[in-house]
Amino acid sequence: MDSNILWQQYFNSKEVNLKNQLIEKYIELVKIVAGRLYATYGNHLDFDDLVSFGIFGLIDAIDKFDPEKNVKFETYAQIRIRGAIIDQIRNMDWIPRSIRQKAKLIDDAISKLENSSKIESITDNMIAEETGMTVREIQNVMQQTSAYHVVSLEEKLIDATEENSLADLKSELPEERLINAEVKELLIKGIKELPDKEKQVITLYYYEELTYKEIGAILGVSESRVSQLHSKAISRIKYQLL
């Protein structure tokens, strides 16, 4: 059935079987969004779990979508789907308290080393000496917390998008402006003000969609160092959005 006809029939009747047809029609959109997020959260969750979370977002999008507002359903739905997945991931809170405590020690050690020695490239060995942890422990903590930092940032961006943009789609008009202009400006400003290596990591990770291993090979540093740079960059950017 033609999409426009299907939507029109659903809006007029709200029949469950028509809603199910819309869900089936756009399920691939859920898989696309879940696939992108799986690259980040795959160490903690199954792809099927992400799809399940995303389906709730799709259903919510179908329920709340208004065709009279000048925005494509696919654009609107992706925000709802992504938001639903991030929300579920946040609620799962998979990082043990002991790991969070170690991550705090590592962050404090990095800050101390940066402020005291002005060393551009802080090594895992330096952090190990400062914290009393082994290099393996540090690398393990970095790997476990890297996805958490991404969740935290994406959650804030989604919250800003939901609050500032989806509340009145008519005022935003083009789908390119679904993310509030002020949030975009702050995010761009935050990225521009990052130190060069952190800026490179953010660019390669989010825009080029490279893995830590691939980024490490390009920058000539270890995966744990990439994770470290990523975490520091996310913290700086989040501060710009507070």
The CATH C-level name of the largest domain is: Mainly Alpha
In the predicted model, the low-confidence regions spanning at least 5 consecutive residues are: 163-180
- Biggest β-sheet, characterized? none
Q: For the CA atoms, what is the radius of gyration?
A: 21 Å
Q: How many discrete structural domains? A: 2
Residue-averaged pLDDT, rounded?
77
Q: What is the H/E order?
A: HHHHHHHHHHHH
Briefly note the structural class of the backbone.
mainly alpha
Total DSSP E strands: 0
CATH superfamily of the largest domain: PhyR, sigma-like (SL) domain
CATH architect. name of the largest domain: Up-down Bundle
Classify the fold: give the CATH topology of the largest domain: Butyryl-CoA Dehydrogenase, subunit A, domain 3
Oligomer: single chain
How large a portion of the residues is in β-strands, by DSSP E? under 5%
Tell me the number of helical segments per DSSP (H or I, 4 or more residues long).
12
Function: Sigma factors are initiation factors that promote the attachment of RNA polymerase to specific initiation sites and are then released.
Protein name: RNA polymerase sigma factor
Organism: Tindallia californiensis
Domain RNA polymerase sigma-70: 49-62, 211-237
